[in-house]
Amino acid sequence: MAKSLPMIDVSGLSSSDPCDRVLVGEKIRAACLAHGFFYVTGHGIPEGLIEAVMGETRALFDIPDACKDALDKANSPCNRGYEQLGGQTLQEGALPDRKEGFYIGEELTAGDGRVAAGKFNHGANQWPTDLPGFRPVMMAYYAAMVTLSETLMRGMALSLDLKEDYFSGFCDQPLATLRLLHYPPAQPDVPEEMGAGAHTDFGGLTILLQDNVGGLQVCDEDGGWIDAPPIPGAYVVNLGDMIARWTNDRYRSTVHRVINKSGRERYSVPFFYSGFPDHEVACIPTCLYADETPTYPVITVEQHLRSMYDRTYKAAR
Ligand SMILES: O=C(O)CCC(=O)C(=O)O
Ligand SMILES: [Fe+2]
Q: Which residues belong to any copy of the Fe2OG dioxygenase domain (predicted)?
């Protein structure tokens, strides 16, 4: 039987009964130890909002090329806006990714202290002018994703037998990115080209919304690939590099990739929850065995993100 990823109903994390919350933490622990990837239901995100996000995403990628170019993220000091097909190379040494994208973050004005201080990826968005529903839908969804991420980080803390608010410093004024992606069908005559090359995610958690096309694959411990097909009503959640650093790889930042072999257009909307930029990500003492030392040096969220953007965008420049 083909391997599959676990499914977790996380509604218990919002229960007033601590036992309910601990039970979900235990399920998260098992899923993180096994794969670092799991499906989530009971997330509380309204279906209508999800449909609206998918509708606006398709509409965005359907606007004329000249309008996309006007929104190019090269215009933005904080990496917001449109990224053309092949703009990123997630897997070192591979061909550029066969995807186009659009980056959205928290809407911040020049007067915000973090923007004035030149904090990484902080600032204003670029919005399409001819799609009136786009901005309100994306901002509502961004806010809902921040709330869900906070809930899931409490679940992560419980899963590690930590106090539920252990990650509250990380969750303070979090840097996060909503990313709209469009994957044209793979080209049969370029079999080595991928929609997204094999990579790990850079932040804390990723919450992925995908359409019904499929193509996401998760690397197994034995080096094989497990399909993560779309399941209606469920998100795919995966751990990013920060969690591997916190746990000294007890929980892995699992490698994944996308190959769209369906012959159809694929759309997905990952939300990357990266945390407070100045937060120092250091190994959690209880994640070390007695004779073990931390594999990773202490790093701030911002330092790690900057280095990963440098690496994955350098090749495509
Ligand atoms: O589109 C997907 O299913 C996954 C995208 C992804 O892995 C990423 O953007 O980091
Ligand atoms: Fe990813």
A: 174-275
